[in-house]
Specification:
alpha+beta, Beta-lactamase, 8-stranded antiparallel beta sheet
């Protein structure tokens, strides 16, 4: 972790045994301009690590009987384009819906951040999907934004409120938040940076940084340890729901990786990375050994997944 030390964008690392920290360390700075050091309580934008929480929200609502994962997406969002007629919630969870990437639909004139409702507007336009639902894997931020909108429709709460009431508060993740500018605040916030030829430049937000279901949660290694612990028992989700999340639903576009509901599966490891402008993160879990490694960073390079595997091997 030497490259993260000093007056540079930093990182936090946790090695967990059944959710309890056996390594808990912070490196470098969370805020370069303020010379604010990272700590284990520093909250980073999780980016696509958010997807495991979005999937868990759907599974909670299925347990409540508020929806079924075999519901058509258009049952809850009837304004979706006709090309989504055959898309089921389970397809969205496993990235097999074939929805068009909303990032490719953003008009060039748009210069303000998109929110989940704006993504729905883009997906309402007539057009084809990439393939018939359920036939192929294609990683989809669109699908997970749609899932967050379904959570809101089915629960009667905003997605951020649902996460807070049903996941974060019950697990004691008191500083984790699906961040909405002007509505919520991020305590102990890390800001994202990218390396130029000569220095680090703040690149904390982009046009798509305000969407929630695909990547909008901020959290720390301390709070994520509580999440990891809850995945070993039924304090949050029933065993059958956890099985659905963790059992591969389809092979991905990498022969070494399968995908469940919000989790990648590689052999005996469950993992997910999260990359957005200025942030690179990963969680790798080995449930049979009850060992997990989490690395959160506020920089655009390097990808922390290989580092997490190296750290995991030591344990």
């Amino acid at each position: 972790m030497g490259m993260y030390s000093g007056e540079v964008p930093g990182a936090c690392v946790a090695v967990l045994k059944a959710g309890a920290a056996i390594v808990r360390r912070a490196y470098g700075l969370a805020n370069l301009e303020a010379h604010l050091a990272a700590t284990p309580a520093t909250n980073y934008r999780l980016a696509s690590m958010t997807k495991q929480f979005t999937a868990a929200s759907i599974l909670l609502l299925a347990e409540d009987g508020r929806l079924s994962i075999d519901d058509p997406a258009r049952k809850w969002l009837p304004s979706l384009a006709d090309s989504a007629n055959e898309v089921l919630i389970r397809h969205l969870l496993a990235h097999t819906a074939g929805l068009v990437d909303f990032e490719d639909l953003i008009p060039r004139a748009i210069c303000s951040q998109l929110h989940d409702a704006d993504v729905l507007t883009l997906l309402e336009a007539p057009g084809r999907g990439y393939f018939p639902a359920g036939t192929k894997f294609r990683y989809s931020n669109s699908g997970y934004v749609v899932l967050a909108l379904i959570v809101a429709r089915a629960s009667g709460l905003s997605f951020a409120d649902f996460l807070r009431r049903r996941i974060f508060q019950p697990l004691g993740m008191l500083h984790t938040v699906a961040y909405e500018e002007g509505i919520s605040e991020v305590a102990n916030r890390a800001f994202g940076y990218s390396k130029s030829a000569t220095s680090w430049q703040r690149t904390d937000q982009s046009l798509t940084s305000a969407t929630l279901g695909d990547g909008g949660i901020y959290s720390s290694i301390d709070d994520l340890a509580k999440w990891d612990a809850a995945l070993y028992d039924d304090r949050l989700l029933r065993p059958e729901s956890l099985r659905q999340a963790f059992v591969p639903a389809i092979d991905s576009d990498d022969p070494a990786i399968q995908y469940g509901f919000g989790w990648r599966v590689s052999g005996d490891a469950l993992w997910h990375s999260g990359e957005s402008v200025g942030f690179r993160n990963v969680i790798v879990r080995y449930p049979q050994r009850r060992i997990s490694v989490i690395i959160l960073t506020n920089r655009d390079h390097p990808e922390p997944y290989p580092t997490a595997l190296t750290i995991a091997a030591a344990f």
